[in-house]
Amino acid sequence: MHRSAYTHVPFCRHRCGYCDFTLVAGRDDLAGRYLTALDQELNRVAPPTPGGRVELDTLFLGGGTPTRLDGPQLDRLFDALFRRYRLAEGAEVTVEANPSDITPDLVGRLADAGVNRVSLGVQSFDAAALTTLERDHAPTDIPRVLETVRRRIDNVSLDLIYAVPGQDLRSWEATLDAALALEPSHLSTYGLTFEKGTAFWSRRRRGELITPPEESERAMYAAAMDRPAAAGFHQYELSSHARPGRECRHNRAYWCGDDFEAFGPGAANLIDGVRRTNHRGVLGWLKRVEAGESSWVEEERLAPEDRARELVMLNLRRTEGVEREDFQQRTGFAIEGLLLGDLEEQESLGFVTRDDAGVRLTREGRFVADGVMAAFL
Amino acid sequence: MDPRFIRNFSIVAHIDHGKSTLADQLLLKTGAITEREFKEQLLDDLDVEKERGITVKARTVALRYKHTDGETYELNLIDTPGHVDFHYEVSRSLAACEGALLLVDAFQGVQAQTVANAYAAIEQDLEIIPVVNKIDLPVTRIDDVLEEVETVLGLDPYGAVRVSAKKGLNIEDCLAAIVERIPAPQGAPDAPLRALVFDSKYDSYKGVFTYVRLKEGTVKKGDTIRFMRGGSDHDVIEIGQFAPLRKECKSLGPGQVGYILTGIKELDQVTIGDTVTHAGRPAAEALPGYQKPKQMVFCGMYPIDGRDFEKLRDEMQKLALNDSSFSYAPETSDALGFGFRCGFLGMLHMEIVQQRLESEQDVDLIQTAPNVTYEIEERSGDVYKIDNPQDVPDAGVIEEFREPIARVNFILSKDHIGPIMQLCADRRGEYKNTEYLGPDRAQLTYELPLAEIVYDMYDKLKSVTSGYGTMDYEVIGFKAADLVKMDIMVKGERVDALATIVHKSNADNRGRQLCKRLKKEISKHQFEIPIQAAIGGRIIARETISAFRKNVTAKCYGGDISRKRKLLQKQKEGKKRMRSFGSVEIPQKAFLSVLSTDED
Question: What topology does it adopt in the membrane (chain B) (predicted)?
């Protein structure tokens, strides 16, 4: 039985140039239909009766921008969820939030609904970088925003982006330091990627956006690991840093290979080894659900070996890597038996290390994790 | 048919001077095709030819033409290829003719292949009719062009026919000139049969079409014929001509051009240049034949997937059937596994073959850099030819290392002489002669090592002369040179398929260029890859492909997992299309990069 659930809220004021997520910008008028459809989709988990409720350890509202919904709409959303789900003792409930949406009223409403973790899309403390990224807040807004959130919810994570065109190592270090100075409980540090179909993709092709050189990106990633560590954070995943006990349990479920449910357009779940993905268009998803059809448009059942290899890819993101016993239990494969020579090769290149506990990326391996993972797939 | 009413001719021209269009017009004007059937480049029936707008394989068409003298003539148009690589095919087509139309562009004038083709026709003692084409162009220089015809080729310009093949202007004059000026073939119909085999073609229904030009005697259906050199006898099942569609006829007499079907299924049973005679009444002497075409360019072709070896062999066999100038022999490379060493007339020929192999069969190929044939004389006195750099023996045993030398004619404007002379000097050329074609144009003659021209001389010439210069070459022999084998090491391992033969004076330079080029072609790996060029044991150049320094996807959450996995798998798949050497994947393009002489 799944103990984690994700809900995708596909609304934004504006689609930022780098973003390829499922969302609609400037179509808040669809929120009502979305909430009705979501309620419908949730029926597949359990009928909305108090007795049939499924217990969750983690619940995550992502987007898009969940805080784009207004108060009553948020209430409807939580109502729909909690008519199917109940929270286990100490459960983690995260909401992604855009800093400019934060008001005392919103925070109060979230806290009242049970939200105990907020992930803030801060992205940068460099005004120029924020402009490039097309964000609608200023660096100076953040201390006040954080203070507002913390009045009710103390577990706050900040999302930061590096390797923004025009950004140098100094600017990134300054962003990291500014973020750490605010003493969040968690940091996510993401290297900017250029995805096909985004405005950034075409702008880079036209030469309007120039990515920092590889060496510079490497230095930024190194800073992303070292600065939080120096401030008492523990890196538990390639891009995630937490104060002790503040790791994001929901995201860890993905990397551990646990089952999870997922709702809303473009969301993908994993139940009993089968991954099913919802229609990626907001309107497409709406229409399917409204017509009483399944919102799933893709189903992936991997062969046991492929599943095991995929789990290697996910596990390696974690600092503890692939844990021998856990891996064998989940997949039926011994890690060494599965990866044979590839493991030795990556080890000899200095990218992974092995011991009784399992297989992990080395620090050097983190810099080139994609190549290491590809070797194991 | 009375030979008096037969004319056999070819059209020769520089590429793009309108040969195919004129041929189509002749077909149209003589009613061989209707306006409706008239389509461009009718004679070029191979796809590859259409794509490249050139004729590769000779074809022949019999036309009926009613002359103003009231008589009907049979005009046999024997098509010739227009590219320098196919010189051999040109001469063998010309051997079946008494005359040739020398087609010259009214603006571009005499070009290198005009000269080469005209000389080939003169050598065969053909009547040459100069034809100036494209007289409808807004800007022409007809008078200058005619002067070039006179001064360069020594032909009488006064009888030149002026046409526009595109517009169909003065085509009648052309036909009249063919009848009036090209001599009728000679030969007695009752003499012992002698027919020259000038081409053959395989057809999956009918077997092998043997194209013949009768010199003497008559051949009929039901006759038993003999190939005088091949020594085999066959019954004639069918004879006929192409007009342009296949048309059976009762007999072929002296001077006529047509085909013979005998039920032969294998193309190699018919030798181009052989003489056909009657088994019962053989001629005393065979006609002078052809020399075997000389393959001057060789390369290795390997299936990327070793399992495709047999498939590739079958395909090469089929190709060789229809193209006697292509050769192949199995070879093995440490780096590439099992493949073939293939021989070609030139670079264009090589490209065409490769294109056919890839399009007709679903075989992905790795092609090694082409090289020319070399001649080695060992200290022991042994002399032999090699067509693969890997076969170069130890420097210690070589008495003399010889390379093929070509005489190259350039035709270009005066202003381009300097740059081309520089280019030739850079390539170890030996200056021979300059001849002015007119006040502004000149013919420049050099002797150059073939290896220095086959790869990219043509492209260089085009770029130096903004497209206006032309060239033609002919291999004239072998000459000793200071040559060495250059090895390439990738991550410490010698990759045999990347070895090349270079001139010592140029080795350091080529080594550096090649290492740089390979650095560009080989993508980054998880580790550093040194690339070295070496002569004997001495490293002469080195580049390093740095390892990935940062290659990590920042985000991977629930909805990203599948996509991310597929993306990484795809990267891995992509590598399967390459060959790995040790742990380095080398893409196909890298093997050809050996050729490039660009400085970048």
Answer: Peripheral membrane protein
CA distances from B507 to B499, B513, B545 (A): 12, 10, 22
Same domain (yes/no): A249, A309: no
Instruction: Give A-chain residues touching B527 at CB under 8 angstroms.
Output: 349
B20 is in an annotated binding site: yes
B260 labeled part of a ligand binding site:
no
Are B522 and A345 spatial neighbours (Cβ–Cβ below 8 Å)?
A: no
Fold of B194-278: Elongation Factor Tu (Ef-tu); domain 3 (2.40.30)
Q: How confident is the model at residue B441 (pLDDT cuts 50, 70, 90)?
A: confident
In a domain, A161, yes or no: yes
Q: Where is average pLDDT lowest: B42-51, B327-336, B584-593?
A: B42-51
* Domain at B375-480, CATH class: alpha beta
Contact B562 A268 (CB under 8 A): yes
pLDDT of residue A51: 62
**Token digits of residue A13:** 């004021």
What CATH code is assigned to B297-369?
3.30.70.870
Closest-CA residue of B relative to A271 is B558
- A307-317 in b/e form (b: 16+ CB < 10 A) is bbbbbbbbbbb
ipTM at complex level: 0.93
What confidence tens digit (pLDDT) does each residue in B69-101 have?
Answer: 999 999 999 877 655 566 666 777 788 899 999
- CATH code of the domain containing A333: 1.10.10.920
Q: How far apart are CA A187 and CA A247, in angstroms?
A: 9
Position B428: which residue type?
Answer: R
Least reliable range by pLDDT among A111-115, B43-47, B330-334? B43-47
- Asked if residue A212 and residue A355 are part of one domain, the reply reads no
Question: Between B506 and B45, where is the model more confident?
Answer: B506
Amino acid at the residue B569: Q
Across the interface, whether the CB atoms of B552 and A268 are under 8 A apart is answered no
Give the nearest partner residue to B550 out of A254, A368, A377, using CB atoms. A368
Contact B568 A368 (CB under 8 A): no
Residue B358 token pair: 């890839």
- Kindly state the percentage of chain A with pLDDT values over 90: 95
Instruction: Give the three-state DSSP class for A162.
Output: strand
Cβ distance B561 to A275 less than 8 Å, yes or no, reads: yes
Mean pLDDT of B143-151: 91
Q: Is the pTM of this model over 0.90?
A: no
CATH topology of domain B484-592: Alpha-Beta Plaits (3.30.70)
Annotated binding residue at B18? yes
Q: How many domains is chain A partitioned into structurally?
A: 2
CA nearest neighbour of A375 among A348, A338, A342:
A342
